[in-house]
Every structure is written in C-alpha cells, then in structure tokens.
Design goal:
Shape: globular
Helix content: 40-55%
Radius of gyration: 19 Å
Oligomer: single chain
Strand content: 5-15%
Strand order of the largest sheet: 1-2-4-3-5
CATH topology of the largest domain: Aminopeptidase
Number of domains: 2
Number of strands: 7
Largest sheet: 5 strands, mixed
Distance between the termini: 32 Å
Low-confidence stretches: 1-23
CATH architecture of the largest domain: 3-Layer(aba) Sandwich
C-alpha cells in the first residue's frame, strides 16, 4: 500500500489551513498517542485504537464529548463525537431542538423560522469507514477530531462557534477487522494489501452496508438514521467513500447534469455550493486532484 499517497489524501480530505497549529492546552497529539502521524506508511489504526484516542481527547478538551449511539452487529459500542465550542456544549439540547423544528417545519411561521435559524447553529455530520476497505476516511476521523480540539487559529475558532460537528465511524466492526488483518504481518514492508481479507467487513450484509440506509435492517444503520432523521437533522451530511476516477484523488459535487427534478432545486444548489467551496479551497491551497461533474458517474438520481 502506498501510504505516502494515503497521507496526501488525508491532507486533502481535511482541507484545513496549513498555518502553524496553536494548542488550547495540553492535548495529546497522534504522534504521542500512536508513535507516528495519522497516515504513516504501512500503518492502519483499528476502531479500538480510535476509541481509546477519542476518549482521551474528550477528557483533555472541553470542545468534545462522546455519545453512545448504539451497538454494532458484533456488539461494539458506536461512539459519536460531538465537537463544538464549550459555550455551544452548554446549550446542545436547545440547538438540537432548533434543528429539528426547522427540518420538520411543523407549525412554523416564516418569522419564527427565521428567528430560529438566527439563533441556531449549523449541524454538520461527517462519517467515515462505511466500506472498511476504503481505509482513508476512517483514519481521517482521528486527525479531524485532533485538529478541531487542538487548533486555536481564527478559522477553527469560528467553525467551533458556528458549527456543531457530529462525527462517527459507521462500520466499527469492519475497521477493527480490516485494520487488524492488514497489521497482522509484523514486518511493515511486507504489508501488501487489505483486499485479501477472508470475509467481508460487515457480518451480515458485507459491502451492501450502505445500501441498508433505506431498509434499516442493521443495527449500525438504525443508530445512524436515528441521529440523522429523528434527533439532530443535520443540515450537511458528508458521507465519505474512497476510490474515484482514474488519476483523481477525490470527487465532490457539483454533480453532473441533469439533476434529479424530483428533488427541490434549492437542495441541489445548496449541495453544489458546498462542493464548490471545497474545490475553491483545494485550488487556493495548491492541492490538485479534486474533480467534479462529468469526471465520475455520480449524480443525484440515486439519492
């Protein structure tokens, strides 16, 4: 595995400022926790290691708490990190209620909705590790949490004030299995691939674990859907996958046309605006490899 490429993808996926990081107190770095950077050559961290690190960060930082959202098919606890400013943490129930009321729009006047929107915070969901052999995005979750709880630059502080970030691993069983399988070889340079795993990474549905989103047969899907559609109703849901068009590093919206006319055009335009902002950031920071529209067969007709 070319883990130098893995590290590059991690840097691109985070798309955060490359300016020096200031600490908000003593927060354990990935290097201190694991002895190497996230994305180091020939290293895959498991879900158990992620949980240990997240628990440490939650103890060390007042920006992060962990919530048990359910059990996996193999009985592991699914931990969701909530990362935001300490002030926002004091009013999480209020912000959750605002997000719910705006999403359901039951009995709201236009005036009341605008007042709630002005008072509320943007709720953003970022998950990783759904297809466990798409290893990059699960590893990103370790680095993402560390950066958001440790950085004190103006941009990070603004994000913490304006945004409530919900992040989780959506296939913990697979992350443990794939990571452990890859790391079973004691000699790092002999670790060749995680594609030769002897079984699929979900106990019951394998690679179709994301297609369970509309059937909700699996406990992991039930846990995620409960957060997304019954509790928090995030305005942005970023579901990370890996592997895209040949020669590209990452695909993001805008999607190719024509868009799905069964969806509200405002939803499509909102997705396109977020994707365009991400592309603009990559270009500004000199990070090539991000593609859109016709560079992949992704579109809005399957949503």
């Amino acid at each position: 595995m070319q883990n130098k490429k893995l590290f590059l993808i991690l840097c691109l996926a985070l798309a955060l400022t490359a300016s020096p990081v200031l600490s908000q107190g003593k927060v354990t770095t990935p290097e201190e926790q694991f002895g190497h950077m996230i994305g180091a050559d020939y290293i895959l961290l498991t879900y158990a290691q992620l949980v240990d690190y997240w628990k440490k960060l939650a103890q060390e930082s007042d920006r992060m708490i962990l919530v048990d959202i359910g059990k996996t098919a193999e009985g592991r606890t699914m931990w969701m990190a909530i990362i935001t400013s300490p002030e926002n943490h004091k009013k999480l129930d209020r912000y959750k209620e605002i997000s719910r009321r705006l999403a359901l729009a039951e009995g709201l006047t236009d005036s009341t909705a605008r007042k709630l929107a002005a008072e509320g915070k943007a709720v953003v969901w970022i998950d990783g590790g759904l297809h466990a052999t798409e290893v990059v995005n699960a590893q990103v979750e370790l680095e993402l949490a560390f950066q958001m709880v440790s950085q004190n630059d103006p941009e990070t502080l603004r994000l913490l004030d304006d945004v409530i970030l919900l992040t989780t691993i959506t296939n913990p069983d697979g992350m443990d299995f794939v990571g452990g399988w890859y790391m079973r070889e004691p000699e790092p340079t002999k670790r060749k691939s995680y594609d030769d795993i002897p079984r699929l990474y979900h106990k019951y549905v394998g690679h179709d674990n994301n297609r369970d989103v509309y059937m909700v047969n699996m406990p992991e899907t039930e846990a995620v859907n409960r957060v997304l559609y019954s509790e928090w109703f995030p305005q942005i849901m970023f579901n990370q996958h890996q592997t895209g068009p040949a020669g590209a590093i990452i695909f993001m919206p805008p999607y190719r046309n024509p868009f799905n006319y069964y969806l509200d055009p405002l939803v499509i335009m909102g997705v396109d605006r977020v994707g365009t902002a991400m592309h603009q950031r990559y270009i500004a920071e000199g990070k090539p490899g991000a593609v859109m529209r016709d560079e992949a067969n992704y579109q809005t007709w399957w949503n």
